[in-house]
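Case study 2.
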Amino acid sequence: MNSNHTYLYYPFIKIPESTLVDSLLFHDRVKRIIPPQHAGDEDLEQAYTQKDICKQYLGYEFIEEADYSDSRAEISGPFCALLDDALKAKSPKKFEQIFGKNYKSLFDFERTTIWGTQYFIYAQKFDEQVYNKLLENHWMVYHEDMHACELRNELCNVYMTLLAGNIGRRTGEPISTGVREAEELLRKPIFQEYFRGLVSDQLRPDTKLQEMCVSLILGGGFSKDSEGVNRSIPIDKVLTFPEAVRIRAGLEKERKEFCSFVDNLMARVKAIDPADPKALLELEVRDVIDAATNYWHEIQKKTDRELKNGKKEWAAYIQTGISVSLPVLGTAADVLTNKIPEPGFWTSMGTLLSLFSFALLHKPSRSLAMESANALSSREKAYLFMNRLWEIRDRRIGGG
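Prediction:
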């Protein structure tokens, strides 16, 4: 499965929630470059909170820390060589490709201080040679209270891209960033000149294509609503981080089938080159949505037919009791255990369990139970997962 792998996120230690939502749906693990914990650091505490929440629900370390010590030492010399050349350059145009215009004056903390434009890197991420070089050039200020170094964001992006790229080359893991400027650095000629052989340019594969396919599935293709607005919507606008964690914890097999389906859709999209790609994509995605919707309707129809064959009253009472009482009891349990109740979670669980209770009550008719069991390892599981996403989408943005 192309989607399932471990990747390295940079440059920040706190992963954006939109990135985490995508990671929880499509990837095995995510790593980040994070130093030992410092008490009182708000960003670091939030980063560890993300990790703890994932472990609490999933039962394993979904967010891991990358080992960067060897990479830090390997890139030290080449990075310092770049700094020396950039500082001494009489014609800075070459280095403006990665550092931006007027970098010499902007980077010099002795001559200028522009509030709100500096980034912070924990000192542990620098080799001693790099740390001293930045201080000597006055391109960095060390803040002892935070154990962090303040420097311009352009310089931060260059260093963190180099460090992440080197870690990725060592581990064979793709790297990913939400910072467009950092991603573009890998393709800059000067970056290749100084760091060729040190970094892997392997970014998370097909990220944009995956986003497009998921958006089509969630949004109903390229259809427009009554006001002419495109209904396609990205996954991070549908799911919150807590919802994504709980879905992964409770619907792991369904999630994997959904990932396989999205991978297959991506492969089909890449294989075509029509004059009007939107028309073909719309047709294929609509077929998928229709199939998933029809499958859910078929389950409901079979339930209705079986109810007519016997034990109708018992099944109705139990189904109604579960679907009504479970949301109340589940929400109460969340509150008593200091958890934040997820809107609609227990209602959906009540609906699913009420369907399952029908199959248990009607033992003579084993066809539905057998079909339900077979669906756990079939394409229909992906359809069930899609319906779960659609339920959340409709609740969040309204409409269908």
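Residues 209-310+362-397 form one domain.
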